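yo

u said u wanted the structure for the complex thing, so here. seqs first:
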Amino acid sequence: MSTQTPSKLQKIIAAGHFGVTSECGPPRSCDGSVIEEKARLIGDYVDAINVTDNQTAVVRVCSLAACIKIKQMGYEPVLQMVSRDRNRIAIQADILGAATFGINNVLCLTGDHQSFGDHPNAANVFDLDSTSLLQTVKMMRDEKKLLSGFEMKVAPEMFIGAAENPFADPFEIRVLRLAKKIEAGAEFVQTQCIYNMDKFKKWMQGVVEMGLHEKVAIFAGMTPMKSLGMAKYMKNRVPGMDVPDDVIKRLAGVPKEKQADEGIKMCIEQIQELKEVKGVRGFHIMAIEWEEKVPEIVQATGLYPRPKVD
Amino acid sequence: MIIAKPKPIEEIIEMVKDLKKVLVAGCDGCVTVCEAGGMKEAQILASALRMYFRGQGKATTVEETSLTRQCDKPYIAQLDEKIENYDAVVSLACGAGVQFLAERFKSKPIFPAVNTCFIGVTEEKGLWTERCQACGDCILATTGGICPIARCSKRMSNGPCGGSASGKCEVSKETDCGWHLIYERLKELGQLDRFAHPVNAKNWATSRDGGPRKVVKEVSQI
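structre next:
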């Protein structure tokens, strides 16, 4: 982590604390109060709030507008950007725009294919991919240059993040891929939701062996299961998700009305366990449409109150 | 080669239903190999149209022919003499052939009878798959001879994405993950170092994004 930015998230990590992030999926209409309400539920329990960018290729309030709203509420946003919908012109413009509002965290993603979303007939862009997007942001920040080579008077000060899925195939390249993203510019990484703890630990072992944990802050992705139905859906229908049978069995073993509690309990146990895993520097809690549970998880895992940094 | 597939007969009937004299023109090039638009398919389509017109009690005549290539002037010139005998041509060539006929025979409607799909190969009998998107700046030397632009659903330069599972693409379990294939092939070739470092943003100016393209070979123009 070389370049210092005004990002609070970066400072918390640099000070040696566990970082905590969560996310807010904007609404599918222009009701801004939805964003405010979600941000208010989690804002004091996390260091920064990711705002998803048309996640699963479904049209929603744009990430940048929602980030500005969150910033104006006094919380710190992480601008998620996918390369599916915008080319390098639009992406760089949005990064500049975000920086003018004091947004200092960006998460660079390729994005789910549009065939999963509500506009499967749309053209996709994919001018860049997540890795070349990381390179772009790094170049803008560190060289003060756009991809075109144009030199900017004021460069965007971004703490640069990437996602990584330790569970996608082929497994053997997943550490290499992280190394590549770090070389491209990633300074923090939020992982795919972890359910297969053994596989995650194996991945982390590879990360540590290559010394990558010293170059990037790894936030373990956590999504509490709301029900057995959700667990089965995640296992069978969501691309890149690894839900072991043990998780399904555990949820199936409690009455339906207790499954949500069991899901939270599992999530808390996982965080406690992952705190001991070398290289894990924080947690990214994605409580999907269940934001009100974030404070409980953060408190129960000893991650509250959040540290103050200047 | 260019891979195409026949349009539904209903769509073709809709184009020609009010005409009196129709020429169905196949192409002996790519569309013959992919069994979409050669002489055989021209004969089948012409028969189907004749049956349709007969069924409708119409006296429309439908004739068929096939040209060596509809993308070359000397071959389409073979229609110069007889084009006036027809109200329109239904072309079974790829989109290039259809347009080349339309450019030459300005007063005649030229209708497409196939949907042009992609540049690909005959993977097995009756199965054609995509291999190239004609980006204009070939990178196959660096990707183990497998093209991520044509074979990754997100045309990633630095794949695979997080949706790759068991060697298959997140978009469809029927589709191989292009980057999984690239990785395996680079491993086989002992070239995994090519996979180790980020590839910069691609220059798409040589691709469709640069506008309609042309290739000029001056020596051949003399």
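Residues 175 and 206 of chain A are 6 Å apart (CA to CA). Residues 8-300 of chain A form a domain with the TIM Barrel fold (CATH 3.20.20.220).
cya
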